[in-house]
Amino acid sequence: MSHKQSKSKLDRTMPTVHPNAAAIDIGATMHMAAVRADRASEPVRSFGTFTADLNQLVEWFTECGVETVVMESTSVYWIPIFELLDARGFTVCLVNARDAKHVPGRKTDVSDAQWLQRLHSHGLLRASFRPKGQIAELRAYVRQRERLLEYAASHIQHMQKALTEMNLQLHHVVADVTGATGLRIIRAIIAGERDPEVLAGLRHYSCHSSAETIAKALTGSYRNEHLFALEQALALYEAYHEKASACDVRIEAVLELLTADRGRSGSEPVPPPRRRRRADQANALAFDARAALFRLLGKDITRIDGLGPYLSLKLIAECGDDLSSWPSAKHFTSWLGLAPCNKISGGKVLSSRTRRSGGRAAALLRLAAVTVGRTDTALGAFYRRLSARIGKAKAVTATARKVAVLFYNAVRHGMEYVDPGASAYETRYRTRVVNSLHRRAKAFGFVLQPLEPKAGATVS
After folding, report:
1. 250: which residues sit within 8 A by CB, 6+ positions away?
2. Strand pairing partners for 427?
3. Cα gap 270→283, rounded to integer Å
4. 397 and 436 in contact (C-beta within 8 Å)?
5. What is the pTM of this model?
6. Handedness of CA 81, 82, 84, 90 (dihedral sign)
7. Which of 344, 363, 357 is nearest to 403 (CA)?
8. What is the pLDDT at residue 276?
């Protein structure tokens, strides 16, 4: 049987799920589009990437009766045509190239587009999750803010370098050169102040180092070229933070629109925070994110250990505020890459490792897991127990999965989380282990008996 005959036989035997499917092989300067062979005399055509070319592509799909289009997520080149097709009413499926890459014979853009079209017509491709509407807008603003803060962080290093070149050891006597004490001193240096005693007098009252220690650290050589570099680094740091503040305005506005669209009045009183948080954090939002999220969701998800207001905002921006795209918490954790990816053959588990994922949501939950591991909570006790038994890396993944399940249940089903505490968790764990030992002993014909405490010994 020839290759062409085998393909036609495959098309006859497999059911067609999407009869009006098309596919686009995305490129930087050219898009290759494919429709069914019976829809056009030339079922595969190439189009440029200018706006006029994209409009021609959409018109061709309309003439061919296309209803759903599939494309691979190639860099950011897919975004313009994706948004245009979505605005014109097409059902657009963005798929991961990993799901369709293990195919022999795909050597050209033409065969690539044809293969994607055939797979999609038979329903063999799963669309990647992409938030829509105002959630997509919120995600764009949050990601832009994160990008600006990363740029600002690089200029903190430039300030530290300029100070070190002048032998001003400011970063050794203050915890953060961009804190209250550090910025006061740096701005005074740029303004022309050179007296170490005067500079040390600018310390914040909460600074751990004494004024004498700071004065010793600020005795150095003030060369013009290093002062110029310090001035420019500070200006760029402040400029990026100013742009980040502009993102805060947009983020707050989108949250208010989302709250209004969800039909929430926002009149319910915001519950008090679980613990006091520092109000002078360098990268803090310019508005009360916890109150804004409470008005949007109708619940305070910062009650979940490890989820602060800003991290919760980033999770909502990445995953949405309803999580209806995932039928259950298991689907959600699998999408995040935090659930075991079992490979079973012949009834034997070959591997159960979690698959590698570069998703931002999974990274945020891992960060929450590391944070909660240092707390005296049930999740913290869970993390420490697993860390001692299987290592920190696996403990972070397991704890992140637990946090993800709590986040899913809170957002999707309105669950209110109450931390039972580390001691309650340890008691439950001890009871579970003792009951297991009793069952195993009984299976072998033995009975476990508790040890009698020795005279004079205290029972814990």
Report:
1. 141
2. none
3. 23
4. no
5. 0.84
6. positive
7. 363
8. 63
